[in-house]
Amino acid sequence: MRMTLADRVRAAVAALMHATGESQTDLAGALGVSQAQVSRRQSGTAAWSLDDCEAVAAHFGIDVLDLMAGPTRAFESLPEARHRVTGRRAAEAGRGTGPGAAPAQVVREVAAR
Questions:
Q1: From first to last of its 113 residues, what are the pLDDT tens digits of the chain?
Q2: SS3 string of the chain?
């Protein structure tokens, strides 16, 4: 089944929040809206407007078209500096080794939600 544009945007926002470690509250603060408004948009009871999409993309430092393309493209476009560093990656970063980005599996898991 094909994802609708609305589904792709919601999945992309979820993937970006996961990749950066941001919460809905963090994103809401950056966008100047309430956490409840982000929650409604992410649950599908309200839609992300085009202006919202531009603001989300700017916040994460990606092109709005990459956001609309879906979670994989959005994640791949996320600047390395915005990726959170946790667990093994944090230890590897301290040694100067390890992958530069989270595995694609993370994107698939977030998109499947």
A1: 788 999 999 999 999 999 999 999 999 999 999 999 999 999 999 999 999 999 999 999 999 999 999 999 999 999 999 998 775 555 555 545 444 445 455 555 555 55
A2: CCCCHHHHHHHHHHHHHHHHCCCHHHHHHHHCCCHHHHHHHHHCCCCCCHHHHHHHHHHHCCCHHHHHHCHHHHHHHCCHHHCCCCHHHHHHHHHCCCCCCCCHHHHHHHHHC
Q: Is 62 left (phi over 0), alpha (psi -120 to 50) or beta?
A: beta
What angle (nearest 5°) sits at the alpha carbon of residue 27, between those of residues 89 and 83? 20
14 neighbors 28 (Cβ within 8 angstroms) = no
Contact 48, 13 (CB under 8 A): yes
Nearest CA to 48 out of 89, 14, 90 is that of 14
